[in-house]
Design a protein that fits this description.
Blueprint lengths: L7 E7 L2 E6 L2 E6 L3 H10 L5 E5 L9 H12 L2 E4 L4 H20 L10 H21 L5 E5 L6 H7 L5 E5 L7 H4 L5 H8 L4 E4 L2 H14 L4 E3 L4 E6 L2 E7 L6 H9 L1 H13 L4 E8 L6 H14 L7 E8 L6 H21 L7 E5 L4 H10 L2 E4 L8 H9 L6 E5 L5 H4 L4 E3 L4 H12 L3 H17 L2 H13 L18
Parallel strand pairs: 1-4, 1-6, 4-5, 6-7, 7-8, 8-11, 12-13, 12-15, 13-14, 15-16, 16-17
Antiparallel strand pairs: 2-3, 9-10, 10-11
Helix pairs in contact: 3-4, 4-5, 9-14, 10-13, 11-12, 11-16, 13-14
Length: 490
């Protein structure tokens, strides 16, 4: 323990740093994604710990040495859980991403329920739990992140290791009729009840879990109202809560106001000749609804031909799981759709869809947010979707419009001031986009101001505070920043 104080220990599948091979040498790069964005500032210089896999499966690599410099600069300590290629294939690509990911996103037809995936999932979860037991003390608070590690509390207790544990699910939790299709459903529910606190993005996800629990334990009692409730089920007593994750509003707002970023945003608008810009930003994944979105843009130009030449759709697709065949096929499908739409509508001086399959530097992404008149955020299902919040935070002109899927977790918070749409309804989206394009300026400003105020108030630090308060009656301020951090291995 650092300075004799309680530490906040984050445990996730991946560390916030990634090992990449550059020629014959391994290099360390900062991780990307919502989890790293959310929790890295929380742990920085507070004596915190992050436990996870490095992303490498080569046993000859001295991972700890490679990560030492990153750890010092990041301001928190990293502990690596080594995984073999077989373990990664079965636990990560198999159980996590071929079973839990599609099932929890209501896409059960994509599931592959191989028993060997389940066995490897348990083996790797036990391996993580061993690392947690070795590298933490009974005073630490262990905050487990996401569906990859649902058995952590179960295995810690089976080893006789006493820890205060919280679990947060970053994806949706399905209703009983979908969850019951999981062959190992009761074991997963049992494992989750071993945590002291189980958190979800929305009350709907929390209630779905409670209903599944009642299917197995009809005597389950739930007491309380509001975001956090008490559960008694069998011999277990724990808490369930809804904690909608968010972003660092000031970071995105400040970056958008930066002179260099503002110039980049201006250049984007200039390059597109100050046409209206509709923007989509997603990790390439079949849950994000990118093909359906492109078809909606196609429908927009068919239904409202007066918009041809006056509007551009920009889709940024960040590469993801490129080695998986399903994702290769998705990329091909999207590229073919873009080609068909551009082939149907383009004329000299105007191409309707600009498609970018690559990762953008953070400042350039914010410049696109700032330049866009409309954000089209239409996942088929999403736990939260931080792009919707990032767009609003970066919209410093307060002149933008958010068009948001009703199946994104963010819809519960932002529904009053966003256009909510069904991502499968191409004509409905086209009509709402047309309304958004012609929306009165004063009305745009009113709704965007409300969206920004909501996100500013309920930011990432509010999310952390609300979870910690429910878990251990503490706030982030109870883990104060230190001028100099000396890491100790327990």
């Amino acid at each position: 323990m650092v300075g004799g104080k309680q530490r906040l220990v984050v445990v996730s599948n991946r560390l916030p740093a990634t090992l990449k091979k550059d020629g014959d040498e391994w290099t360390v790069q900062g991780g990307a994604g919502g989890l790293v964005t959310a929790l890295a500032p929380v742990l920085k210089n507070r004596g915190g710990v992050w436990i996870g896999w490095s992303g490498a499966s080569d046993p000859s690599i001295d991972v700890d040495s490679l990560l030492a410099d990153f750890s010092a600069k990041a301001g928190y300590e990293l502990y690596t859980v080594p995984l073999t290629k077989e373990e990664v294939d079965g636990y990560y690509f198999g159980f996590s991403n071929e079973i839990i990911w599609p099932l929890f996103h209501d896409l059960q037809t994509r599931c592959r329920f191989h028993p060997r995936y389940w066995r490897m999932y348990l083996d790797v979860n036990f391996k993580f739990a061993e690392m947690v037991a070795r590298s933490t003390t009974p005073d630490d608070y262990i905050w487990i992140q996401d569906y990859h590690l649902m058995h952590q509390a179960f295995f810690l207790k089976s080893m006789g290791v006493k820890r205060q544990t919280g679990f947060f699910l970053h994806i949706p939790f399905p209703p009983p009729d979908i969850f019951m299709k999981l062959p190992w459903r009761w074991k997963v529910i049992q494992a989750l009840t071993e945590f002291d606190l189980v958190g979800f993005h929305t009350t709907q996800d929390r209630d779905n879990f409670a209903e599944c629990l009642r299917r197995f334990q009809p005597d389950t009692e739930i007491e309380g109202s509001g975001a956090v409730v008490e559960v008694r089920s069998g011999n277990r007593q724990f808490r369930l809560g809804a904690f909608p994750i968010s972003i660092d509003f000031n970071q995105f707002n400040g970056l958008a106001e930066n002179e260099d970023v503002a110039r980049k945003a201006f250049n984007i608008r200039e390059a597109l000749r100050h046409r209206k810009i509709i923007l989509g930003v997603d990790r390439l994944d079949y849950t994000k609804g990118i093909p359906e979105r492109i078809r909606s843009i196609q429908t927009l130009f068919r239904m409202f031909p007066d918009l041809r030449g006056r509007v551009n759709f920009v889709q940024i697709a960040v590469p993801s799981r490129e080695e998986v065949d399903e994702y290769k096929e998705l990329r091909t499908e999207i590229e073919q759709l873009v080609g068909r739409v551009n082939g149907e509508f383009s004329f000299p001086g105007w191409v309707p869809v600009h498609y970018h399959y690559k990762s953008f530097p953070h400042d350039e992404l914010v410049a696109y947010y700032s330049a866009a008149d409309i954000a089209l955020v239409t996942p088929l299902r999403d736990g939260m979707n931080l792009v919707a919040k990032e767009y609003c935070a970066a919209n410093v002109s307060q002149d933008g419009v958010l068009v948001l899927s009703e199946f994104a977790g963010a819809a519960a918070q932002l529904q009053e001031d966003a256009y909510l749409v069904n991502p499968y309804d191409m004509e409905g989206i086209a009509k709402d986009l047309n309304r958004a394009i012609h929306r009165d300026k004063a009305e745009r400003k009113l709704h965007m101001t409300n969206l920004r105020d909501q996100i500013r108030k309920n930011n990432i630090y509010w999310w952390v505070d609300s979870f910690l308060q429910a878990g251990i009656s503490k706030r982030l301020g109870d883990f104060p920043e230190m001028a100099t951090v000396q890491f100790e291995r327990e």
